[in-house]
Amino acid sequence: MELKEAEFVRDYINEIRAAYAVELKDTSPMEQYMALGHLIKRYNSENWTDTSKSYRKNDVKQVYYFSIEFLPGRLLQSNMLNLGITDVVKKGIRNLGLDFDKIVRAEPDPGLGNGGLGRLAACYMDSMASIGMAGNGNGIRYRYGLFKQVFMDGYQVELPDDWLRNGNAWEVRRENRACLVKFGGHVWMQEQPDGSLKPVYDHTDDVLAVPYDTGIIGYHNVVTNTLRLWSAELPPNAEEKYYSQSQRDNIDDITKVLYPDDSNEEGRSLRLRQEYFFSSAGVQSIVRHYLSGHISLKRFAQKVAIHINDTHPTLVIPELMRILMDEHDCPWDLAWQITTSTMSYTNHTIMQEALEKWPIPMFQGLLPRIYQIVEEINRRYRAAKIPVFGEDIVDRTAPLGDGQVRMAYLAVIGSHSVNGVAPLHTELLEKDVLADLYRIYPEKFNNKTNGIAERRWLEVANQPLTKLIDSKIGKEWHFNPKLLQELSAFEGDTKFLNQLVDVKKENKQRLADYVQSEMGITIRTDAIFDVQIKRLHAYKRQVLHMLEIIREYLEIKHDPKAEVTPRVHIFGAKAAPSYHYAKSVIKVINALADLVNNDPDIGDKLKVVFIPNYGVSLGELIIPAADISEQISTASKEASGTSNMKLMTNGALSLATLDGANIDIIRAAGKQNEYTFGLTASDVYGYYHRNDYRSKAIYDSNPELQKVVNCLITNMIPGISTEGREIYDSLLQYNDEYFVLADYADYVKQQKQISQDFKDVETWQKKSLANIAASGTFSADYSVARYAEDIWQVPYKRILK
Ligand code: BZD
């Protein structure tokens, strides 16, 4: 948009006066931020209205991305970027004598997700708007996001994340679009005048779902899409009916807090209520919107695509069936045809323990009509498939089985498309996790490799690098990130390589300043910044990284005078509050950090920093500063990974197993520009099939490994007698479920190679450049374009090659 500085300054001062009735000089950064957010929202309001109007006028097919999590990150800078007003606003703010960075930091970072899945949903929202696609988000407006993590005596402590305390500048509450979601009660069949039977639900517990909409601004293209998050409230006219305190609390609880676990199914009734709540409210509002422009529901699937982001929104399937049949008299077959043509499903994990299943009595009690529909889906599935495929495989894959509602199977059966998020992951879905369903519906399965929003992860997070890239290849890559490939022409340009070194140094300094001020630890910027940032989980193997730190520590202790390449090991990771083992790992890494960081023999050769409260905002600070990107999951376990892509585009070299999208990153950047190691997925499956992995044998055969692992139980690291033992036992007594010891030697070898290679600045920088140049293909713009073409069949405007 066009904006002059003088105009902005005038508007901003007026905004502050109107909102707070004080002079600018008397405002807090929070007030300055809120006023700026409101002003920008106002600047963009016409685009938002016009986008909706034009979708409606042109009867454009809409995509609705249903996700129980969205992790958008702070919106101020990305909205300014996408509107093209960054420079004007920054200048205006500076000339008013305000501190822009402080204003940026005053914005709460909405933690409405756990990790990769929620962040992916947010990247996709940004990309859909930016390529000009009619893509809407649908989720939950949690009053408390993911907990704030602090460390006390090295232990993780969780504090509530009251992110809405000062209001939310970007959202609009739309009370007039609210709808009722019904739980519990009874269903009975009422005879109609024509003799047919119609279900009636009574004695239900009704909850009002109120939408809060946030505009998702496209990049330089006047498009603004909508992210709709639902909040649970008492129904209207509630005062006419008595609600006990516990009924009120039950309603309040539905959207109170995000479940803080990203890898275990919760299995609790509140979680199921959350899932039905936003699925039902979302589908109701979609049907209502559709019917405001169409007379019949027959063409619904030509105008609406609903995407199921992992299994949490699977109940959109029976919910759409319910609305079509019970409210619009659609016969089953037509309703089923419309529903399956509308729905598509992405799986994000092969971990068995994350697959959602609900005990039938709980499900049936909470959602009696939905359960009837699932039963009928189940009955028809069995009737249609048993004659063709036999009873065994159909038993194993039916939506109902073992006394449970199996959400992933329901999602596959009720969708026309099922995708994994990286080629290896999709292959494993087909061969292993969903192999039976793949046999029955091979045509539904496809791969859509994840992507990231380059705008946030490069243009917002790494402004120095963005400027440098622009100075070399212009700005066209902002619209078509694959053009970053043009950078490879500068591989021999020493001046450019040196400029890249300077940019990295600047970013490392920014992080070092943060670490100094927040943690009181001094780190040197000429050290290797070796970064592992992701949820804490055994399969992601922070333990392997930890063993390497112990090894490096012992090595320096053994010969304190020997020359070493200095290193800073940087961790960011939250553990699910109930995940005991993950919390022990945090404690041990923190204790190790204390030992290492305060040992005079070590000095500044080796530092360990576990930065508390990792989230999107800290990611923006850490990622541009990284030299090494640790992507060290047990092969086959990480569906894709996305921090691997973010780190790559910021010039970090991957230290990676052949897992998830690491494989594709390595192929894109060239093997010689990354450090790969360890078992392959087929090695891991080989061990499973033969059942012959013995971690103890590896331990016995490697004296160096023994020394390192023994440090967990020798009191060398103070204060971890319980936690150290727990990890030690997991590796030896419980046979090392994630093959840490199997990969140890190869991992160490690559770490040693890294220490060598880092000394040759020019060669290192060339590798870093190769990563940046090849990273464009991992832009989410291309990912959503592929979803649009292959799955959703929706148009988009931007030409992407
Ligand atoms: O999804 C992650 C995978 O682990 C990553 O490999 C992948 O890159 C991303 C995006 O596709 N999965 C999750 O993040 N899963 C969850 O966050 C989650 C949340 C609630 C319940 C279960 C899983």
TrEMBL record:
Cofactor (UniProt): pyridoxal 5'-phosphate
Q: Does the keyword Glycosyltransferase apply?
A: yes
Q: Which domain of life is it from?
A: Bacteria
Family per record: Belongs to the glycogen phosphorylase family.
Q: Which SUPFAM superfamilies match?
A: UDP-Glycosyltransferase/glycogen phosphorylase (SSF53756)
- Which EC number(s) does UniProt give? 2.4.1.1
Reaction(s) catalysed by this chain's protein: [(1->4)-alpha-D-glucosyl](n) + phosphate = [(1->4)-alpha-D-glucosyl](n-1) + alpha-D-glucose 1-phosphate
Q: Name one process (GO BP) from the record.
A: glycogen catabolic process
Tell me the function of this protein: Phosphorylase is an important allosteric enzyme in carbohydrate metabolism. Enzymes from different sources differ in their regulatory mechanisms and in their natural substrates. However, all known phosphorylases share catalytic and structural properties. Allosteric enzyme that catalyzes the rate-limiting step in glycogen catabolism, the phosphorolytic cleavage of glycogen to produce glucose-1-phosphate, and plays a central role in maintaining cellular and organismal glucose homeostasis.
The family database entries (PANTHER family) matched by this protein are listed as: GLYCOGEN PHOSPHORYLASE, GLYCOGEN PHOSPHORYLASE, LIVER FORM
Q: Which Pfam families match?
A: Phosphorylase
From the Swiss-Prot or TrEMBL record, what is one GO molecular function term? glycogen phosphorylase activity
Recorded GO cellular component terms are: cytoplasm
Entry keywords, A to Z? Allosteric enzyme, Carbohydrate metabolism, Glycosyltransferase, Pyridoxal phosphate, Transferase
Q: Which residues carry this modification: N6-(pyridoxal phosphate)lysine?
A: K646
Name the top EC class. transferase
Name-wise, this protein is Alpha-1,4 glucan phosphorylase
Q: Which residues form the signal peptide?
A: none
